[in-house]
Structures are given as structure tokens and as C-alpha cells.
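USER: Please consider what follows.
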Amino acid sequence: MKGTFLLLLLISLPVNAQSPFDGTWRIDQASLKVPAAPAKFLLTKGTFECNGCLGDVSVKADGRPHKIPDSAYWNAATVRIINRRSVRITTDKDGKIFYTETDTLSPDGNDLTQFGKDTTEAEAVTTTVQFHRIEKAPPRAHPISGSWQAYKIEKSPNGLIISYKCTKEGFNAETPLGEKYEAKFDGKFVPVTDDPGQTMVAVKRIDERTVETTIKRGGQIAGGSRLTVSEDGQTLYSLHQDASGKQTGSVVMHRQL
């Protein structure tokens, strides 16, 4: 009788119960959403202009670095014309390269493959975006010019994994590439370790299955996410917002065994 009573007591105590967030999650590639707005490129007279990339810039395509509007991860860009079907864009922050993008046309010129390499992590993460042409290049412009509508996006496997740990006091996140944070549910911002963009994160617990994060860069709110675990504990939904609170995207993650 005494043993049975103790067993029931232990079962009824939730003190050491694991949070539904705890564990490792993998982003479902199918949930990655492409930008709704078309990307516009214009490469003519030795200058590359883009809308929907790098913060809308104009850079000389001479293979040398040029200053562009400062951001958390770049303040200079280099545009190099590889050939009539391919252009490479490299961005750096104070001389350190953090991102390289190669845009390559299909033989018929109607499709574009954008291969990006993010080296802000300990290990490079790659993203491939496929586009259909929706507007032709102007006369005498490089064939990569025109308007493009994205229709497919894929990330390398090493950029899809993240682990979470949630307690009554706080919320932690960590990727295998070294980025992590440990934040308390007190509204205070804490730094993201191993992030050259010096991102700060604050967390708020909504309920047992929902946590909100807010990120800050350069002293300014940059956006955030609302993370919710499904009732069965196997799926995690992440809704992303911009600085104004407008939803900008979402991803679905699945629990890893």
C-alpha cells in the first residue's frame, strides 16, 4: 500500500515534467515559403541593380568591393560577371565575407537558379531558390536582367536543425552550428552566441505550448516569432513577424527522435 501511494504521488507531481518544446526539431523543407514579390535584376552599362535583394542596391559590376547600405551582416558588395549566363555577388562586413550568391540562367534564359552560401555560421549553410522569368531583359542588358518569380526553395540539411529547452524560468535555443541563446521569461534581451549580426533575443511564455520571441539588432526591434507545439507534441509551428508585428512567413518543424 505504501509503495503504491508513493508511486501515485510521483505520477501526479508535474514539477519535473518535460516541456513539449524540449528536444531537437527539423524544419520541413516543404513549409519554406518563397517571396511573393518578384525579384528584379538589371545589369547594364557595367552596373548591377537589384530590387528584392541585398536591400535594393546599385553596384558596379567590376569584380571589386563597393560600399552598400550598412546592415547587420554586410556593408560592401562585389559583383562579378562570370559569363553570359552567370553572375556572382559577394557581400562582406568590414572585409569579412558572410554571403556569396551565384545566379545562373537556364540555357533558354527562362529560368534562374540562385545558389546562396551563408558563412556567418561555423559551417556554411546553402540555400537554392528557383525562379521563372516573368519579364524579359531590356535591350543590350545582360541576359540575367528582368523580373523573376520564385517558386521553389531548398536549404542544406545543416541549416534545418534546432534544439529547444523550456522551463518555468526561461527558454533556450541552440543549433548544431554554434548559434544559441539562453533567455529568461523576464522580458530582458540576451545575446545570440556566435552571431556576427549581434542579434539580441527576449522571450515571453504565452502558455505551456506557446512561446513568443522578439529579436533586436543595432538597438532596434527587428521582428520575432511565435512558436507553438501541437497537442501531440510532434509538430512545432513558427510564425514570423517583422518589426511592425506583420506576419512575414512561417515554417513547420517536426520532432526528431
